[in-house]
């Protein structure tokens, strides 16, 4: 996993036109990168590195350290020291909130740079990165900044004469936080925001495909005044994540990623009796009822699956349309797919960027070929969207099918591939929608408020969207049921995942 030389990195970064990559983003991407441990930028203990590529060209952007067990141990020790030496856990709540708010301000002030880095490293359209990823990160941090002054316990009504008891909320401790590549900055903030608010310290590991914005976030945290060691950032691969999960000094693990990896983390954390939250995969059903606003439902269903090039855990990848409207909806979706602009993430005209990696490209195109072989009808897409060269482009792809047995109708693809199926009645479609191991999100389009509530109650999912898709707010709990995860992020429930309850008894007789 050795990367390109520094000379090649500089040449590659400098080949990007100034109107597409600003000087701050260019300077950060092209510099020498280290791990953030205890407030210092340091190389991996064994000197190993790996490259992070540009998905739009498949060419390397930069080298970053590949963390090993020794680096994990150093970071965990730094995080433990920060709990005590910096008094982060016992810092006055208003001060802790002020520092988190200061970090939010710095993320906002560097929004253009962060969006460009996200686009360069992950391939997503730069406009999307700024509007969704960076703006969402700022909002999540500001929401988290309000929590420290509102963490309270309770006085417990007692039936024991002469006894007084109360509870207090205390931070879990050191948190190992492992984030995915589809929304790197946003997912990092979703993890560190409540952890910092609760008084925890963090060892953050970004995905190996998209390490740049996490490293930049770590720099901004120090600039904001967070004490050294409160936030540590380790770049690396799956072995780095495994070392974090297995480290005795990690008190809680938070992971967003595939269900397969999540099962393994749950088993290891369970054996060690560590606290764990998991936000995992999905195969979300999107239902268009016969009374729906068909134009709005079609537009919303297109965004539900092709947003972020289909690389979203909540992607509405299974579309069920009443038979009366099936042909019209499929035709309209195919027309939209055929005119969507596929291109490099940094191009401001791009609507769908590439998928993130060669591995993901092989996975997505493999499902497309398998769908054809299994008898699904390819209505639109399936190619590279007119993009030549070495980038990992997949145009928005639409299949129709009548069977639930298709592999692509059951397994999470995590790419711009939609399977549309007709249905006859409500009972049939809710059974089909729930016939999956996943339960992260679902949607229904209808003008009837009674139908909206009825279907929403019947769908087995952690989030149900009615006449829209993908709404997110830091105050609204988010997470899945069944194989889509354990626990919730956001809101009070997301904060509570980083707190322990201590009950204190005092004899007053």
Task: Give your account of this protein's structure.
The chain has 509 residues and is an alpha/beta fold. It folds into 2 domains: 6-280 and 487-500, Aldehyde Dehydrogenase, Chain A, domain 1, CATH 3.40.605.10; 285-473, Aldehyde Dehydrogenase, Chain A, domain 2 (3-Layer(aba) Sandwich), CATH 3.40.309.10. The chain is built from 17 helices and 20 strands. It has helices spanning 6-14, 23-30, 69-85, 93-109, 111-122, 126-145, 184-198, 212-224, 238-246, 259-272, 294-306, 326-339, 358-373, 407-410, 426-434, 449-458, 491-496, and strands spanning 35-37, 40-42, 49-54, 59-65, 155-156, 163-171, 174-178, 201-205, 231-233, 252-256, 275-279, 285-288, 318-322, 377-380, 397-400, 417-423, 441-445, 463-466, 485-486, 499-507. The strands form 5 sheets. The protein has a 7-stranded mixed β-sheet with strand order 14-15-16-13-12-17-18, with helices on both faces. The longest helix has 20 residues, at 126-145. It is globular, with a radius of gyration of 23 Å.
